[in-house]
Design brief:
Distance between the termini: 70 Å
Strand content: 25-35%
Helix content: 25-40%
Number of helices: 18
Length: 672
């Protein structure tokens, strides 16, 4: 089979319209079923539902008191109290009870006095009632035959109450769209079959995209089933697609609580309404999706002008939709959001959920390639009333760029990106309230920041700490632009040997507090067993040794340059000096994977991945906090956590940290 080539790239909206139009020509529609009210939550109504009875079904008391005929009370006044005989002209009544015959008003118990005279009980009132006072009239909520809910409504808790009040005990709903997920790839194995030694050796990859797809489909009202993994063989892929359309093999898959679907219950064939073929949709030598689907039906789109997500394939086989989504999880997720979720909404006659939008200011430039619409994942924080966006890694395989993201910026296909400080629209992945109560830290990376966020959420659930890693100098510059609440920094002044103070004086004008977070041990991470016998910074200049560095502006990079200068070693002598990573853990991963023989990072990163560690020195890792934020409730909550025994004990257990001065104010910059 020849290598795939893309069709003309289409914008997502245009590609979706083309696919939907072809599907509409085949008139595919979902079956309808009736379910009891107890099972109707989050199901979608297929027809309007009318009340079978009025609610209330009678005139009832809205207050505790006495039921009366309002006309009998018109003579009552403070000067001329009116006596009504209980049991005849007035009747005690409780809230919700039906009015006695001949009554049309309720007088609250607080406005009623009683007396006994002439062998009878009398209610004494000083104010007249008016007709229907404190009465819930029959049909006040709904009248029998009145439409309670229209079609397309996804039934929620309050909807259940309204239906029950109207006497509706079962409702007509769309059968859940049956979605078959077919993972493909000769190197792919199910999660429960992935052995650690095979993963480390790169022999296999764990298949988890189907887990993401199933969750998205279930939330959208669909019924997912994941079929067995299919190898990269055209015949096997074709057979799997046809089996999914026929319903064969569903019992072997997993998905909803039932494990598989059966068309008999809905009165239709048991096959899938939609098939998702995962991976193999690109243009590589083993990417067969487009050609296989072309042989089985019609490929309408192969390639959309969105990044990530470009290799998406949209096809129709036997009149049913089949989509080939890329293997990278971020690309796959975007393809699901652009095409699968809108299709499920269309079938269920409802509008797909749209995310809340907000305006944000990027803290640095966001370049983009013209011709492709880019979906950029960002962290967000509200600083001085402005939402600030910090970009996360752009890789299509970095699923954490979605799990950690607060929002997504859509960069138009005709744009080269946007400048720092240029307002952009963000699709929010979290509610605005979460941004309002988040402290945004930009600056140097340290593993203790994630620990701080965890403990802050545990002890002060209202707040959270969101951090972005751009290096110590980048953090100070972001503070200077008013784009964050605090910055992590460990910038060494080579002349004085003092950390952070000179850099703060040179870069910040407003008053700030320098607070010690931890003392931490920096050193050289080596391959397991330290096979090259690395013992110090001078060994990094050995011929053939591959080094991985931290990014420019990071305190670790400054420390390395300082030590190299002391030893008289030119950076150009180090192979890999320009190979940069943005976190200590990424440096450790590069060394563990064999991409590099050594890297400079903190001891906790070496401990986390079991790497040898050659100490270089102990440095001061501080938090730089503007004085105007220091007394805010959110910052005080963070300081409580930093100074807690729990934080210090947990940090110490990581190894390579000192907490003797943790939480102490080291210095205050008065501003200039």
């Amino acid at each position: 089979m020849k290598r795939n080539t893309y069709l003309t790239l289409l914008p997502p909206d245009e590609a979706r319209s083309l696919w939907f139009a072809k599907l509409n020509a085949h008139m595919h529609s979902l079956a309808e079923e009736t379910v009891p009210l107890t099972e109707a939550l989050r199901r979608v109504l297929s027809r309007p539902v009318a009340a079978l009875r009025s609610s209330p079904a009678f005139h009832g008391a809205a207050m505790d008191g006495i039921a009366v005929n309002a006309e009998d009370t018109f003579a009552a006044s403070p000067r001329n109290p009116l006596r009504l005989e209980l049991g005849k002209a007035a009747h005690w009544i409780n809230t919700g009870h039906p009015l006695p015959d001949g009554c049309n008003a309720v007088i609250m118990v607080e406005n009623v006095n009683t007396e006994t005279a002439e062998d009878a009980q009398w209610a004494v009132i000083e104010k007249a009632a008016f007709p229907w006072q404190h009465v819930r009239k029959m049909g006040e909520d709904m009248v029998a035959t009145e439409i309670i809910l229209p079609p397309g409504v996804c039934i929620g808790p309050y909807d259940l109450g309204a239906l029950a009040a109207g006497g509706v005990l079962e409702v007509p709903v769309f059968a859940r769209p049956r979605v078959a997920i077919v993972p493909s790839g000769s190197e792919i194995v199910p999660l429960n079959q992935a052995r650690e030694e095979d993963l480390r050796a790169g022999r296999v990859l764990p298949e988890f995209n189907s887990l993401i797809f199933s969750a998205m489909i279930t939330e959208a009202g669909g019924d997912p089933v994941t079929l067995p993994v299919v190898p990269d063989e055209p015949e096997a892929i074709a057979a799997a697609v046809m089996a999914a359309l026929d319903g064969a093999g569903a019992e072997a898959g997993t998905g909803t609580e039932s494990g598989a679907w059966s068309g008999a219950d809905a009165g239709t064939e048991a096959g899938a309404d939609l098939v998702i073929l995962n991976a193999g949709s690109s243009a590589g030598s083993h990417d067969y999706t487009a050609h296989v689907l072309e042989s089985l039906g019609e490929v309408l789109v192969h390639g959309v002008s969105v990044m990530p997500g470009k290799p998406t394939v949209l096809a129709v086989v036997r009149g049913k939709p089949v989509i080939g989504v890329p293997g990278y999880p971020v690309s796959a997720g975007i393809a699901m959001e652009e095409f699968v979720l809108p299709l499920l909404a269309l079938w269920q006659k409802r509008v797909a959920t749209e995310r809340e939008k907000a305006t944000a200011i990027p803290c640095n430039p966001l370049p983009s390639r013209p011709g492709m619409e880019e979906r950029l994942r960002v962290k967000l924080g509200r600083v001085d009333g402005t939402i600030v966006a910090v970009p996360l890694p752009r890789g299509a395989g970095t699923i954490t760029s979605l799990s950690r993201a607060d929002g997504i910026i859509r960069i138009p296909r005709d744009s080269e990106g946007c400048d720092a400080g240029e307002p952009v629209t963000v699709d929010l992945l979290r509610p605005q309230a979460a941004l309002d109560n988040a402290l945004l830290a930009i600056g140097s990376h340290d593993n203790t920041l994630d620990l701080l966020d965890s403990l802050l959420r545990k002890t002060h659930p209202r707040y959270r700490l969101t951090s972005a890693h751009v290096g110590s100098l980048g953090g100070l510059m972001a503070l200077g632009r008013g784009q964050c609440h605090l910055a992590g920094s460990h910038l060494l002044d080579a002349a004085s040997g003092v950390y952070n103070r000179k850099a703060i004086e040179e870069n910040l004008e407003e008053p700030v507090v320098l607070l010690r977070l931890v003392d931490r041990e920096q050193g050289i991470l080596t391959a397991p067993g330290n096979p090259l016998g690395i013992s110090g910074i001078e060994d990094l200049a050995r011929e053939g040794l591959r080094f991985v560095n931290r990014q420019r502006g990071s305190g670790t990079r400054v420390l390395l340059d300082y030590r190299l200068a002391c030893l008289g070693i030119a950076p150009t002598r180090i192979t890999g000096y320009r190979d940069e990573e943005y976190t200590h853990m990424n440096v450790a991963a590069a060394v563990l994977s064999g991409r590099a023989d050594a890297g400079l990072a903190v001891r906790s990163a070496a401990n986390a991945l079991g790497l040898p560690f050659v100490p270089v020195g102990v440095e001061e890792y501080d938090l730089v906090i503007p004085r105007r934020f220091y007394e805010t409730p959110a910052m005080q909550a963070l300081l409580d956590v930093i100074r807690s025994a729990d934080f210090k004990q947990t940090v110490t257990a990581l190894g390579g940290y000192g907490t003797e001065k943790t939480g102490q104010i080291i210095w205050e910059h008065p501003g200039r």
